[in-house]
Every structure is written in C-alpha cells, then in structure tokens.
Amino acid sequence: MQSEKLQISFFFLFFGIAIVLTFLVFSPFLNVLILAAIFALLLQPLYRRVLVACRGKESIASMLVMLIAFIFVAIPIGFLGTQLFGESKELYTSLEAGRVEYLQSVTSFIETPMRTFLPEFSLDIHGYLGKLFNWISSNIGPVVTGTAQLLLGIFLLVIALFFFLRDGAQF
Fold first, then answer.
1. How far apart (Å, rounded) are the C-alpha atoms in residues 119 and 145?
2. 135: left (phi over 0), alpha (psi -120 to 50) or beta
3. Which of 65, 111, 142, 154 is the most exposed place for a label (fewest CB within 10 A)?
4. Nearest CA to 125 among 100, 113, 98, 107?
5. pLDDT band, very low/low/confident/very high, at 127 (cuts 50, 70, 90)
6. How far is 50 from 65, CA to CA, in rounded Å?
C-alpha cells in the first residue's frame, strides 16, 4: 500500500513536470497557434462550402481555403506594405537630397487652416521626419533580426491553419 502511494505520488510529480516543460517548449508558439485557431474559426463557413464542392476531400478543401484567404488577405496587405515602403523611401531620399518643396506644401496645407483657430501654430515636419528617420535607422537591427522569427511564425501559422481547418471537426 505504501509503495503504491509512492508510485502514484511520483507519477503525478513527473506528470506535472512534463506538463510544465511542454508548456515552456510551446510557449513561444502559443500566439501563432492561437492566431491560426482564430483564422480557422473565421474561415470555417467557407471551408464547409469548399468541402462540399470538393466532394469531401478535406486536404484539398483546406488548401483551397488557405489559397483563397491568401489571395484576399495577404496579397493586398503585401501590396500596401510595398507601396508604403516605396513612398517612405522616396520621401527619405528627397529629404536627404534637400528637396523640400513637397514638404513645404504639406506644411502650408496643414498650417493654413490651423492658423485660423491658433494664430501661433507652426509645424516642423522636416524636424519630425528627421527624428523619425534617425529613430528608424537606430532601431533597424531588431527589425532585421526579427525577420527570421516572423518567417518562422508565418510558416507555423500556415501549417497550423491547414490542420485546424482539415481536422477541426475532430477537436
């Protein structure tokens, strides 16, 4: 009887340790898994319709739903990001070259209506943008190093989303 209690105690002790260690292993990926679960939940009605159209082939339906989501979500976000990056690059090069006529027109466009309410209002966009670009250039290191982590997160999100869609009914 005593050895049986000792065995049960050790079992629960090691089981608890295993649960804590498992949590520590998966904790960096919990955000990705939760996001994949949310996307799977949101895409579930579309998945059911595509599954009927695919005659019950779950893997094909899951891939098609992910492709549709990629086309309607990721491509526009990527396009917007590319445009934003291009515009900011063009603005930075024009500021570095000393061409500030565009910047002066934006400043006057903002200052003119504001001076009707606040006569002493002035806006130093050139100074603000200089500070912004200095901050970006000094903090670019974490952005570059975080790129690998972002790509890994996207890869895990895609895999988890595929399986959450395909096997979601069995959970």
1. 46
2. alpha
3. 142
4. 107
5. confident
6. 7
Q: Is the dihedral of CA 26, 27, 31, 34 positive or negative?
A: positive
pTM exceeds 0.70 for this model: no
How many residues are recorded in the chain?
Answer: 171
Whether 32 contacts 151, CB under 8 Å: no
Q: How far apart (Å, rounded) are the C-alpha atoms in residues 39 and 31?
A: 12
How sure is the predictor about 12, in pLDDT bands with cuts at 50, 70 and 90?
very high
Q: Which residue has the higher pLDDT, 85 or 51?
A: 51
165: burial class by Cβ within 10 Å (0-12, 13-18, 19+)? Answer: buried
Of residues 52, 88, 46, 53, the one with CA closest to residue 69? 46
